[in-house]
Design goal:
The complex is a heterodimer of chains A (111) and B (911). Chain A has four helices and three strands, in the order αβααββα. Chain A starts with a helix and ends with a helix. In chain A, β2 and β3 form a beta hairpin. Chain A has a three-stranded antiparallel β-sheet. With 111 residues, chain A is of the alpha+beta class. With 911 residues, chain B is α+β, with helices and mostly antiparallel strands. Chain B folds into five domains: 2-73, no CATH class; 77-129 and 364-504, no CATH class; 144-348, no CATH class; 506-546 and 775-911, no CATH class; 556-774, no CATH class. Chain B is built from 27 helices and 21 strands. In chain B, the strands form three sheets. Chain B has a six-stranded mixed beta barrel. Chain B has a six-stranded mixed barrel with strand order 13-14-19-16-18-17. In chain B, β6 (252-255) and β7 (258-265) form a beta hairpin. Chain B is elongated, with a radius of gyration of 38 Å. The chains are: A alpha+beta (111), B alpha+beta (911). At the A-B interface, α2, α3 and β3 of A face α1, α2 and α4 of B.
């Protein structure tokens, strides 16, 4: 897995996770990711949109136009049933991957 | 599946609502940016600094939009257009390659589409009558009825009536019989000899066709017992005789001197279904109501199969098996009900078959169609391989260019799309030109008279189904080309491996070379198979041209005269025709003239008489022969002289003992080691003597002469035996005149018509026919098939030559550097040339072997089209193989020579 793939996979997972809390538009998703990660994940905010459109194309998220709190027209995204399944699967994969990495790192320390 | 649908929906929305999708993308990103700017301002930044910071955090807006467009599908259309423009530019740059590619495409797809069009419009989807698949022709045959394998198809009124009354599967049933009548439009116009079709009124229900003007026939119109006789005219007749005047309906025609009222006009293009090739359905001018008379339904008529056509419309859902099984049951029941008929069927079971109109249309042309389909299929495969060869060769030149572009950052998907769009463009152009070729081909074949021998002409335009097939075939090839093109990108290592390949070897991978070798092999095999077929047909045609019909055909005219039935007694009819014969003989334009019941080239060639010797009158296994009735002038007009004995004289008719002339074919069968002159024979109507209802007929006839066998109708089949009886005093339905003329045929016809008018004001000279033209027309059928197949063979051979020469040229060009080095190191040009050509010639030789095996395997399919030529004719095989080998050697040598004529420095310079 290349670095780009890793980042892309992580971003998709983060978006799906954030959307599991409910329907949000792009700006809110971006804010949530920053808040939840305590500003540790620094990504170009605009890169959120190609990722959202990619997820929409795959059918993991569904989009609809609505009105934001400020009264402006905004595109809202919500998790589809397929997206929920994908989230569970990717979460498991990520945790397993992360555990494996931790194990290896811990092994190096003990050796 | 859902994600696929979602993706398609998004892409389609982007294509058809491109602006809306673009606006949404702008709005969405602007909303985010504005929020970002607002937050920065809230955090105390100056508006301009806030905007700068926001843009910095957001990233490159245009690049991000571009990425999003990828997923939203906004770029699909623009990229497609861009790819098409690029591909067109690439094609324009290499015009020669493009022209050859499209040319190959057209001649690869075109013949297949053309053959499909003809087959489809005649058989698969003819569109002649509503729900045509429910219409069948029913015909009967008595098994073992004739030893000569005659094809006497038809039925009789007894069987027709039984089916009409007893069948549960038949919706409506119709019977037709052709007749010829003397017709006068009015008293001012001379009589014409017209083909008239007698039909039962139910024909309109069977074919589901109604007259364009006026009304159809009803049961009350049937001639028996009605005073007013009615007739329906065809559209063609209406046009030529009434100038499409709607008032023609209601007028009166004179048929054989009697008034008939026109009650309807059939629609344009109406034609009756063909009947086993026996009727020239296109020539029919009038339809008359028809029904069996008491005479027709007598018990003995059950045993005789007459040339009555029987069409039935089946009830919906009834299959061919169902109706045939029901008809067999009806036959079995009637065999029980009429014991004599049942007894007769022990030796001669009644076989009832059904055939659809489409099947009937192509029945005698099955071999032609099969060969056409087979050959066009071969051409398609040969052409496809050539195209794949071209694409492979071109791509191998371009692969490094594509690899370089990929290594410089070009998206692989983009390159794949571009290659596919190139294939698509070729397919589109090829498809368009192939449809044009089909349209042009149909018109050209029609102009050349190719369709004259089809009972009903095919649709002469490239219709919807044809276009669909053209598109399918074109894009099938394009798909293969596309796959071949993108294959290097999908292999392990992708395009970059080809950059490495380029540095290591210039001859391409070994597997690719093997693959190209296989293509050359298959192409050679196909081309040789096509050439052999063409050769066999040519050989067969040469044999046909050598046929001697056994009589002089030059300046020979045949015409029919049919005196009206009711007006004269048999004796009066005969004496009038005899008088006409004498007066024709005296015309200045005429050398001599004779009378007969059947003319050459119009002869039904039906052997329906068994002939036995006086010494051994055993009917079993007695020869079944044809019998003609002729006057003494007949032999003279045809230039036939006696081999033994003598021919007829005028006095023969008045002698008590009947005399006959036979041909040498019968003489050798009946009297192999004896002189037949003076021997006595008897003729028996085949089958008729075998049942109790009919009395056997015995009259011993003395043979007075033997003539050489003649081929009176089927030029391709030698006579199996022929008996000529003197025409004198016999009942003939019509009289045929064979006339040897010294002027032009047209002058003689005019003089005969004038002569006849003086004798009979209501009788016309019918169906005048110049014998040499009629024979030429018969040859034309075979000639057309030959030309068509030779055309396909030439195209196949041309495509194979293109493919093979292209492959050799490419192969040698790919080794240019290697050749350059070898030349620089002192290798002889000749050695290089021989080495280069040998590999491909070896492959071609294997291809020739495969082609020979394939030709032998398919040889059975051509048997039906060959005359006096064996499907495994050795000289043809040898000649075709030598010719093909010579063509390939010359092609390979000239291509290789041209390619190796390079200077070593030029070759190495490109390195």
């Amino acid at each position: 897995m290349g670095k780009n793939d890793l980042l892309r996979g992580a971003l998709d997972l983060l978006i799906l996770k954030v959307l599991s809390t409910g329907q949000l538009h792009g700006w809110d998703i971006s804010k949530r990711i920053h808040v939840v990660s305590a500003d540790q994940i620094l990504i170009k905010q605009g890169s959120l949109y190609p990722a959202l459109h990619r997820l929409e194309l795959k059918g993991y998220v569904e989009a609809s136009w609505g009105v934001s709190k400020t009264g402006r027209s905004a595109k809202f995204y919500q998790l589809s049933s397929k997206g929920k399944t994908q989230l569970q699967q990717e979460t498991r994969t990520w945790l397993s991957f992360s555990d494996s990495i931790s194990l290896i790192l811990n092994l190096e320390e003990t050796v | 599946m859902g994600s696929w649908l979602n993706a398609i929906r998004m892409k389609l929305r982007s294509i058809f609502r491109n602006d809306a999708v673009e606006n949404e993308l702008n709005t969405e990103m602007s909303f985010h940016l504005d929020n970002l700017i607002e937050r920065n301002i809230e955090n105390g930044m100056e508006p301009s600094a806030a905007r700068r910071e926001a843009l910095k955090n957001f990233g490159n807006v245009e690049a991000l939009k571009e990425d999003s467009r990828e997923f939203l599908g906004v770029r699909v259309l623009t990229e497609l257009l861009r790819d098409i423009r690029f591909s067109l530019r690439m094609f324009w740059k290499s015009k020669g390659y493009t022209a050859i590619l499209i040319f190959t495409f057209v001649f690869c797809v075109g013949p297949c589409v053309l053959v499909f069009n003809i087959f489809n419009s005649l058989y698969l989807n003819p569109d002649r009558y509503p729900e045509e698949d429910r219409i069948v022709r029913i015909y009967d045959e008595f098994e073992n009825y004739s030893a000569s394998g005659e094809r006497r198809r038809g039925t009789n009124w007894v069987l027709y009536n039984e089916r009409k009354e007893q069948s549960q599967y038949i919706e409506s049933i119709d019977a037709q019989i052709i007749d010829h009548r003397n017709v006068r439009v009015d008293r001012d116009n001379p009589p014409e000899f017209v083909d008239v079709m007698g039909i039962t009124p139910s024909m309109f229900d069977v074919l589901k066709i109604e007259p364009r003007l006026g009304r159809r026939f009803y049961e009350t119109d049937i001639g028996i017992g009605t005073n007013e006789k009615v007739v329906i005219i065809t559209h063609q007749w209406w046009r030529t005789h009434y100038n499409e005047d709607p008032d023609a309906v209601g007028r009166t025609l004179m048929i054989d001197g009697e008034p008939w009222e026109i009650v309807g006009v059939m629609p344009e293009g109406f034609s009756l279904p063909p009947f086993a090739g026996r009727w020239d359905v296109a020539s029919i001018g009038l339809l008359t109501p028809n029904a069996p008379s008491d005479r027709h339904v007598r018990p003995e008529r059950r045993y005789r199969i007459s040339p009555i056509g029987c069409l039935a419309r089946l009830k919906p859902g009834v299959t061919k098996d169902m109706i045939e099984s029901e008809l067999a049951s009806i036959n079995a029941l009637n065999a029980e009900a009429y014991p004599a008929f049942g007894e007769f069927q022990r030796d001669h079971p009644l076989i009832t078959r059904t055939i659809t109109v489409g099947e009937d249309q192509i029945r005698d042309l099955e071999s032609t169609f099969l060969l056409g389909i087979l050959m066009s299929g071969f051409v398609f495969v040969a052409g496809s391989l050539s195209i794949v060869n071209f694409v492979l060769a071109r791509n191998s030149h371009r692969i490094q260019e594509l690899a370089t572009r990929a290594s410089l950052g070009a998206n692989t998907n983009r390159l794949v799309r571009q290659l596919i769009s190139e294939s698509g463009i070729v397919a589109f152009l090829g498809c368009v030109f192939a449809v044009f070729l089909t349209q042009f081909g149909l018109q050209a074949l029609n102009y050349l008279g190719m369709f004259d021998f089809f009972p009903m002409a095919p649709r002469l335009n490239a219709d919807f189904e044809t276009v669909v097939v053209a598109i399918f075939l074109s894009f099938a090839i394009a798909a293969i080309c596309g796959l071949v093109s993108i294959f290097p990108m999908l292999t392990r290592g992708g395009l970059s491996s080809h950059l490495k390949d380029g540095s290591r070897s210039s001859t391409g991978s070994v597997s690719l070379k093997k693959y190209r070798g296989a293509l050359v092999l298959i192409q050679s095999a196909i081309a040789l198979a096509l050439l052999i077929n063409g050769g066999l047909l040519t050989r067969s045609f040469v044999e046909i041209l050598r046929i001697d019909p056994g009589y002089e055909t030059e300046n020979l005219l045949y015409a029919t005269v049919r005196p009206p039935d009711g007006r004269y007694t048999q004796e009066e009819r005969f004496s009038k025709m005899l008088a006409l014969e004498r007066r024709i003989q005296m015309l200045p334009e005429v050398v001599t003239a004779g009378l007969t019941n059947w003319p050459p080239m119009k002869h039904p060639n039906i052997s329906r008489n068994r002939v036995v010797r006086f010494e051994s009158p055993v009917l079993q296994n007695a020869p079944v022969i044809s019998m003609d009735m002729v006057s003494p002038g007949y032999f003279e007009a045809l230039g036939i002289s006696a081999m033994k004995g003598r021919l007829f004289q005028e006095t023969d008719v008045v002698t008590e003992a009947e005399v006959v002339v036979i041909d040498a074919a019968l003489a050798s069968r009946l009297f192999p080691d004896e002189d037949p002159i003076g021997k006595r024979i008897a003729l028996h109507s085949a089958g008729g003597h075998l049942h109790a209802d009919v009395q056997p007929r015995h009259s011993w006839q003395t043979i007075i002469g033997v003539i050489n066998p003649v081929r009176i109708n089927d030029l391709y089949t030698p006579s199996s035996g022929m008996v000529y009886r003197h025409v004198g005093g016999r009942h003939l339905y019509w009289f045929g005149f064979v006339v040897k003329v010294r002027s032009t045929i047209q002058d003689a016809i005019r003089s005969m018509q004038d002569l006849l008018l003086l004798m009979e004001s209501n009788v016309a000279v019918g169906h005048p026919l110049a014998l040499d033209l009629a024979i030429a027309k018969r040859y034309a059928e075979r000639k057309n098939i030959l030309y068509f197949c030779l055309g396909l063979a030439s195209i196949g051979l041309g495509l194979a030559i293109l493919g093979v020469s292209g492959m050799i040229a490419y192969s040698i060009a790919a080794q240019k550097k290697e050749i350059g080095i070898r030349l620089a190191l002192g290798a002889s040009r000749r050695a290089i040339l021989v080495g280069s050509v040998t590999f491909w010639l070896k492959l071609a030789a294997i291809g020739i072997g495969v082609g020979l095996i394939a030709s032998v395997a398919f040889s059975g399919e051509t048997r039906g089209l060959l005359y006096e030529t064996e499907p495994l004719d050795l000289p043809t095989y040898v000649l075709a193989t030598l010719l093909f080998s010579a063509v390939i050697i010359v092609t390979a040598y000239s291509t290789a020579r041209r390619t190796t004529m390079i200077h070593p420095l030029d070759a190495i310079k490109d390195w």
